[in-house]
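Fig. S4 source data, part A: sequence.
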Amino acid sequence: MLELAILGFLYEQPLHGYELKRRVAHLTGHVRPIADGTLYPAIKRLERSGWLTRQTEPGTRAAPRHVLILTEEGREELRRRLREADGVEISDENHWFTVLAFLRHLGDAGQQAAVLRRRLAFLSTPSSFFYDGERPLGAEEFDDPFRRGLLAVARATSTAELHWLDATLRRLDADTDADADTDASAG
């Protein structure tokens, strides 16, 4: 999730490490604060992979500052990770929000729709936080107002996301169909 966020923000523009950390923290920090001991090793891994470079700029008061710049290979790595998002990137809400934050960079409506369909399949599988054996329990089955609240909020969130997914997939499918019609008439 952290590497995806780094690649995504640098896809949009080169950033100083401090600014990158601030943006990543705003995207994910409310759940998982980003420590320097986590961020900078991730930056170094991406740099060693050839997905980003550093450019040194003079500092305003003291030491020089490093600007992080995504390479073309880094841009392709972001697109690959977005195209292949599955498993935890689809099922874990924080990972999913990171994917959604940058999915527009994938650019291809058909590929974007494929990612959304994986999320839709995940959300369409009955689940709960609580079970009676294999059977998921609904909010109405609890006397505990806190568990009822947890399940009610989760259900409302899932319902809203399902509506959004449906509308967005219809739009992406229309864009894909329009692109196919344009390609067919051009050929």
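Fig. S4 source data, part B ends here. The longest strand covers residues 52-57.
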